[in-house]
Design goal:
- It is a single chain.
- With about 550 residues, this protein is of the alpha/beta class.
- It is built from 17 helices and 21 strands.
- The longest helix is centred in the middle third of the chain and has 21 residues.
- It is globular.
């Protein structure tokens, strides 16, 4: 299998860096014209590289639903500034001064910091300063008579945070005040002065345009014929957004260029490439254009350029959920570890160049949606990133080493799946299955997990010809009627009270992961088997919270039992 990594040497990290530099020039907010411009840039680069690609168009209008997600308003930033405590910051320094989707406004007033619930009684006619739950607290500020809203984010230091309101047309009935951001450093200085009893005045100005509609752009390219390995990357997020996610969008252009040169008719897979606005574009693609039966698996590229020294990042491999077991997780892990080898231990064994670790299924990007719809989907990502969602996510922080390790590993994985000999793939599948089950079995007994692994191997065999595994005898206890990301914010559009209840349950991110995996498992297994396998996959679970969440989803006809 090592020969496929050797072949991947044609992957050119300098090309990726150039693409990152260009994509990061666009302020790629969902619902904005610059997101469309970024999509057209990607389309043109694909054309230059000899690929046939198309621009698929849906709409942002603040009203339409893309499966389970309510469209944000069409929104463009013109100008913004904040003048506070002898500092004046404008959008010429960073467009992140203005919260994405903020209504326009020009206000001047006294700042009040929210520290506890009773502080809301004092906000009328003032400008609120707060560091958490921005959408919820922005709504509170409007309802309590504030004239402006300032957000900051803990842990971002001198950087200005990216915070998106993702307002809908319904939200515009109450969302009236301008919303801006401050760096944590400046915000903390203001808060300390307020605690000493000083009065702080602020001027803030937002010039933004809220339109009737804007194109929701997707770029789609194919090489060869189905079945396909599908590669995805979201192209949205604010300027600069170099690692998140100009890096993934840029790597996808380079992979398309290289795989076009590799492909021939003897390959068992063709290749498809999809650039989308995160989650909204993926769900629009599945709803309008995808032929799901044509895809063997998905490799989603998100934040693939984080540096270990500057950003504090680890290269992570997010495996498919157990409900969608596939050897693609093992192949990607294998090739990332090979690509990461460099130097020697005292005994002559290779040492890793960077920190690398594989993880059970985690949520947070476009791999989620394809998993929901039955396509095994994996994600390489560099995490954490101390510059995540901030004005400091610049190209200078990008690690060429991370890009090279991940890019070559993804390419090698694709080549191994497409032209590896059946006996090679069969041997690897057996070895990875033992490793996977062995790791699960180290701390707990397994009752159901092996059935799901065998089911995944059976699906792999249909595409790869490895003749392993067997089909699961299905015994579903629920039906996931409205598939897609379960978003409390979108559920609030259906029922404010239930959306708020669900948001409270999902404050623990692990509950969100467990809930979505429960829905996937519940369409395959009995109720008790579903809960048992959740424990086998993730360890201890909070069944009471999961059942409360299910009842909310049932009441909204999202699931049925």
């Amino acid at each position: 299998m090592r020969e496929f990594l050797k072949e991947s040497d044609v992957f050119d990290v300098e090309n990726v860096m150039n693409y990152i530099g260009e994509i990061s020039k666009f302020h790629r907010i969902q619902g904005s014209k610059e997101l469309v411009e970024a999509a057209r840039y990607i389309l043109e680069e694909l054309r230059i590289n000899g690929l046939k690609a198309e621009l698929l168009e849906e709409v942002y209008d603040g009203k339409k639903w893309h499966l389970t997600l309510a469209s944000p308003i069409p929104w463009d930033l013109v100008y913004g500034e904040i003048e506070i405590d002898n500092e004046r910051i404008t959008t010429s320094k960073t467009p992140l001064v203005v919260m994405a989707h903020s209504p326009p406004g020009d206000v001047e007033g006294e700042v009040t910091a929210i520290d506890k619930e009773e502080d809301w009684k004092e906000v009328k006619g003032k400008v609120v300063l707060i560091g958490e739950k921005w959408y919820e607290n922005y709504k509170k500020a409007n309802e309590n008579g504030a004239i402006g809203f300032i957000a900051y984010k803990k842990g971002t230091g001198k950087a200005f945070p990216y915070i998106g309101l993702f307002l809908t047309k319904n939200d515009l009935e109450w969302a009236k005040i301008p919303a801006v951001t401050l760096s944590e450093k400046i915000a903390n200085k203001i808060i300390q002065k307020l605690k000493k009893g000083e009065k702080i005045k602020v001027k803030l100005k937002v010039e933004s345009v809220i339109s009737e509609k804007q194109t929701l752009p997707l770029v789609y390219a194919k090489i060869g014929s189905p079945p396909y390995i599908l590669f995805t990357a979201h192209m949205c997020h604010p300027k600069p957004g170099a690692n998140d996610n100009a890096s993934g969008a840029a790597m996808l252009i380079e992979l398309a260029r290289v795989l076009k040169e590799f492909y021939n008719n003897s390959f068992r897979f063709g290749f498809a490439f999809l650039w989308i606005p995160e989650h909204y574009g993926t769900q629009a693609f599945i709803e309008n254009w995808a032929h799901l039966e044509e895809y063997y698996a998905v490799i989603n590229l998100d934040m693939v350029g984080g540096s270990e020294d500057r950003s504090g990042s680890t290269i992570m491999v997010i495996k498919t959920p157990l409900s969608r077991f596939s050897i693609i997780s093992g192949l990607l892990e294998y090739f990332i570890n090979l690509a990461n080898s460099g130097g020697e231990s005292f005994g002559g064994s290779p040492l890793p160049k960077m920190k690398v670790k594989s993880y059970s299924y985690e949520m947070g990007s476009d791999h989620d949606v394809f998993n929901f719809f039955g396509i095994p989907s994996v994600m390489p990502i560099t995490w954490p990133d101390k510059f995540y969602h901030s004005s400091e996510d610049t190209i200078e922080k990008i690690s060429k080493e991370s890009l090279e390790i991940i890019g070559k590993a993804v390419l090698a994985t694709s080549l191994a799946l497409s032209k590896g000999e059946i006996k090679q793939l069969k041997r690897f599948a057996r070895a990875y299955t033992m490793k996977y089950l062995g790791e699960l079995n180290m701390e707990k007994d397994l009752e159901v997990a092996e059935k799901l692994v065998m089911n995944g191997l059976n699906r792999d065999s249909d595409f790869l010809g490895i003749n392993l595994g067997h089909e699961l005898k299905s015994n579903p206890w629920l039906k996931w009627q409205r598939k897609g990301v379960i978003s409390p914010r979108s559920i609030r559009q259906l029922d404010e009270k239930k959306g708020t209840e669900l948001a409270k349950i999902l404050e623990d991110r692990k509950i969100g992961i467990l809930l979505h995996e429960l829905l996937m498992l519940g369409e395959m297994l009995s109720k008790e088997e579903t809960y048992n396998v959740l424990k086998e996959e993730f360890g201890e679970i909070d069944r009471e919270k999961l059942e409360k969440a299910l009842e909310i989803l049932k009441s909204l006809d999202i699931v049925s039992f």
